[in-house]
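PROTOCOL LOG
Step 1. Enter all chains and additional molecules of the complex.
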Amino acid sequence: MSKFSAVSLLKGALTGYKNVEPQWPDAELKSEYDVIIVGAGGHGLGAAYYLAKEHGITNVAVIDKGWLGGGNTGRNTTIIRSNYLYDESARLYDHAVDLWDGLSQDLNYNVMFSQRGVMMLAHNVHDVQSFKRHIHANRLNGVDNVWLTPEQAKEKCPPLNISPSARYPVMGAAFQQRGGTARHDAVAWGYARAAAARGVDIIQNCPVLSIERGPEGAVTGLQTARGFVKAKKIAVSAAGGTSVVMDTAGVRLPLESYPLQALVSEPVKPIFPQVVMSNTVHAYISQSDKGELVIGSGTDQYVSYSQRGGLPLIEHTLAAICEVFPIFRRIRMLRKWGGVVDVTPDRSPILGKTPVQGLYLNCGWGTGGFKATPGSAHVFAHTIAQDEPHPINAPFTLERFETGRLIDEAAAAAVAH
Amino acid sequence: MAFNTIVETLPAMGRFSLRCKRENTVAMSKALGFELPSTISELVRSGNVTALKLGPDEWMLTCPMDERAKIKEPLAAVYADAVHSLTEVSSREVSIRVSGPEAEELLSTSCPRNLRELTVGCGVRTVFDSVQVILTREEQNQFRLDVWRSFVPHVMGLLSVATKEFECGL
Amino acid sequence: MLLIHCPYCKEKLPELEFEYAGQAHIARPLNPAEQSDAEWRDYLFIRSNVRGDHAEQWRHTHGCGRYFNALRNTVSDKFIATYEIEQPRPTGSEEGEKSNEQLES
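Step 2. Run joint prediction.
Step 3. Record the structure below.
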């Protein structure tokens, strides 16, 4: 496969990109693999890439029931940040931010990582106290985060309404400069291309029917729509579909799958310099490089695999956006979509081994999995290769729901995030 | 475009929340001197007192402010034999009356219910732009909203914005 | 917006009047002190998260105020039945039931 460089791009531009070759081959399913990863999203493809690159394991397949990056990887609002309260979470998400920085070079594929800064608005006294606590905790953990007064926030983000009489008054904001956005599809494509170049098979449109286990309990392989495949190790990275897949191996999980919606407006000229989030009203907004405003809302209240979600939530989100940014009141929305997010009781992911030998699990990212993609993939690959969690993901066990050692970001943020 | 729908707040009235088990409703009715409604959304009037059934074991009783004893005293007298919970909530709510030919449409701007299905003389608890309200259809073109006091400015604000939009023909 | 039939009000009403309240028919252990940690985990955290017919609790918060149960398909979001809280779970559609068996076996 050819390498992208300034020269190759210039050549492509001059010749109209007529002879673009496929970036990865459509692989045939082999009969046996060392590792099979279920789910070809950013997390799964990334884990395959790091398995090949850092652990020398290349007899790997990534299997997906649909197309590559067609699940939550292609359905999120592309926000990246690491301003989490607890030490465990801060380490995990900050590991991801460290890897985001330099990912395009590493993959030789532009993921358009833009550290434009993430601003989280405080609308009441509780928010102010909670965000300041987050800021102090973050700085102790080496994560950048600063407090902004309403005027400083307005200076950074001019469309913000800081009138004290607003329905959701802005009393200040927490600001992480290293946060930002990345091009979500490019993350999946970049990892797929780089992994395939190292020998990983990417198998699309191949639903997994069940995980098969031998008489001693260890995994033996996967039953798929294209027949049985032997595997020494199976790693499930299937987001909203995790409960259904894992159930076939007899592992029941503390997960519930909810619809999470997002929408984009018509494209407009650059007007919105940061990512702005409001946890209290649960709306977040940024402007894509194409000029669309990308707006995300909270999860619907009921469990569902519909990939749709209800309109009342969209209405609530847009009402909040219009209130905080009156300038956007007459902008038109182009399209909306939904993903299925798997949520744990403590809103922290499950990333590690399972009671079944040879079965590894990466799930429970809830509404915030995209930002963690490289970090999660990196430590998940370590866990699979070494049969031992990386120190960063060691606290994110499945057992914590039995021992009670939760990582309660749900209580820390009072929202799913 | 002519728009003749009026939004007004009503003077204070006596309000009581009554909760009691099914087996005690007969005693309650006897003490009050009229039959408590038995289906949800049914409204019964007896003189100046009204009773609206909101839930399986919940009623909202109203009366003029100076006649509150008419509800309080007879129910207190039977308390020992028919256990119930009667809570005065007179100062909790303010009533807003919406009357005129476009009343139904005006309320539909913020109420998700199909108001055509709310029959005259019935009342329900519902939401009005995320505010919990009791909505009663007093006449074909006349509704009453009972709103918790602190939400009144929000509800009145929405109704006045909607009124302006209707007046402009939007 | 979902339209939900409240078994107490006997009316089909908009979702905005209701609150979702999690999986139904999860009984609190009768002898909490005798439960093992694993049993507490199952009671508190493990959920069926079924892709099919799901028995769940709802509350008609902005209406009659009652909790009730519903059987809803989590792929189509279509309500198969709503029923009072004491009643047993009704049987759902054939397809939805199949995926339930898959989960419970």
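Step 4. Note key features.
The two ends of chain C are 34 Å apart (CA to CA).
The helical segments of chain C are 37-44, 94-104.
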